[in-house]
């Protein structure tokens, strides 16, 4: 007879016994719980790991972008500050040369323009360096140049440059009425076009104007150098961040996968242990009942000498004691019946 099957007195076998019922009652909530855990493991945990990794990657990209933005802002602000300092220096240079010319011309009141052009001392005052490559030049309110670092420009009507250098002419034209300043593009001897800043100040008491101009990037060159260094530092830092982030993500991925695998192993082992313990516990409950069933079947068939072997101290043990007393009572009753029959 298999465990869980009960043989009735008439020989029939009942297919569903207490063992499968008991195991089903005990295992059903356990299996449901482990099913929920498995669902969380296969869906939510993996989704959480994937989401966390995505957030880490986004955070790394954000840090890199913020660093790049900080570097860009720092460079831009530095260039702007240095350019403003350069503009101020150029303005001061133009005004300073204008004051020097004013003093010199006042000390030579009878000199004519042609004579002044030939005055070497005045030329030294009128044409002075500005920055590394810039210079000052002098023209009058008719846009005629009188002093220039390039002798070919001296005596030229600067209006002839209006078509070729419209931005330059716009500033110079404004200077015919007073102070003027602004940026314009100028072509180098090598053909490169670079922005220049020019400030034009009038010479008091005369119709002359002093123009001070130079390439503005001379002043922002340190910031450009810093910008290049920052770009190199940014590139190195970005590479280090990417490498570090990659290693962190790999460790996180490996740790997460290892944790998930351990969780899965624990779940499987726990489920196996629970099934085993449930089966063992159910057998300890059902086996005495099956033994009593077999004893009851034998007694019902007239075998009053069969032994009740259940010795547990629980309710099943009490039932076994009742079977033993019933067995003894039947024996005594049969003995009395036989005795009475013999006396008859």
Describe this structure in words.
The radius of gyration is 54 Å and the shape is rod-shaped. The two termini are 44 Å apart. 65% of the residues lie in helices and 12% in strands. The longest helix is centred in the first third of the chain and has 89 residues. The strands form two sheets. Strands 3, 4, 5, 6, 7 and 8 form a six-stranded antiparallel beta sheet that branches. A two-stranded antiparallel sheet has the order 1-2. The N terminus is likely disordered. The protein has a domain of 143 residues: Beta-Lactamase (2-Layer Sandwich).
Furnish the topology, listing elements before pairings.
Blueprint: E1 6-7, E2 13-14, H1 18-106, H2 113-117, H3 120-126, E3 129-130, E4 134-140, E5 145-147, H4 166-175, E6 180-187, E7 193-202, E8 208-215, H5 217-300, H6 315-343
Antiparallel strand pairs: 1-2, 3-4, 4-5, 4-8, 6-7, 7-8
Helix pairs in contact: 1-5, 5-6
| Major sheet details | 6 strands, antiparallel
Compute the gyration radius: what is it?
54 Å
**Quick one: how many beta strands?**
8
CATH architecture of the domain at 85-227: 2-Layer Sandwich
Number of contiguous helices: 6
Q: Would you tell me which CATH topology of the domain at 85-227 applies?
A: Beta-Lactamase
Low-confidence stretches: 1-10
Query: Which bin fits the share of residues in helices?
Result: 55-70%
């Amino acid at each position: 007879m298999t465990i869980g099957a009960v043989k009735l007195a008439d020989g029939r076998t009942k297919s569903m016994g207490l063992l499968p019922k008991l195991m089903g009652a005990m295992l059903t909530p356990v299996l449901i719980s482990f099913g929920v855990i498995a669902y969380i493991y296969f869906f939510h945990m993996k989704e959480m790991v994937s989401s966390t990794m995505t957030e880490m990657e986004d955070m790394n990209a954000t840090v890199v972008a913020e660093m790049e933005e900080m570097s860009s802002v720092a460079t831009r602000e530095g260039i702007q500050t240095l350019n403003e300092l350069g503009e101020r220096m150029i303005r001061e240079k133009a005004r300073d040369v204008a004051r020097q010319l004013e003093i010199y011309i006042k000390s030579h009141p009878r000199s004519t323009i042609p004579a002044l052009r030939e005055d070497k001392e005045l030329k030294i005052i009128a044409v002075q360096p500005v920055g590394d490559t810039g210079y000052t030049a002098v023209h009058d309110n008719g846009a005629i140049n009188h002093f220039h670092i390039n002798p070919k420009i001296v005596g030229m009507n600067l209006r002839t440059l209006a078509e070729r250098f419209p931005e330059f002419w716009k500033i110079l034209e404004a200077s015919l009425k007073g102070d003027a300043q602004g940026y314009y593009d100028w072509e180098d001897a090598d053909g490169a076009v670079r922005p220049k800043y020019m400030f034009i100040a009038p010479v008091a008491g005369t119709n002359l104007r002093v123009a001070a101009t130079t390439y503005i990037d001379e002043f922002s060159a340190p910031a450009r150098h810093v910008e290049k260094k920052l770009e190199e530092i940014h590139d190195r830092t970005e590479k280090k961040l990417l490498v570090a982030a990659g290693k962190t993500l790999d460790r996180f991925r490996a740790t997460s996968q290892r944790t998930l695998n351990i969780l899965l192993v624990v779940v499987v082992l726990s489920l196996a242990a629970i099934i085993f313990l449930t089966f063992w516990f159910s057998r300890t409950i059902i086996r005495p009942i099956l033994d009593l069933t077999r004893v009851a079947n034998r007694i019902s068939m007239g075998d009053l000498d069969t032994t009740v072997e259940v010795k547990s101290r629980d309710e099943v043990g009490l039932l076994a004691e009742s079977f033993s007393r019933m067995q003894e009572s039947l024996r005594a009753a049969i003995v009395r019946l036989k005795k009475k029959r013999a006396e008859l």
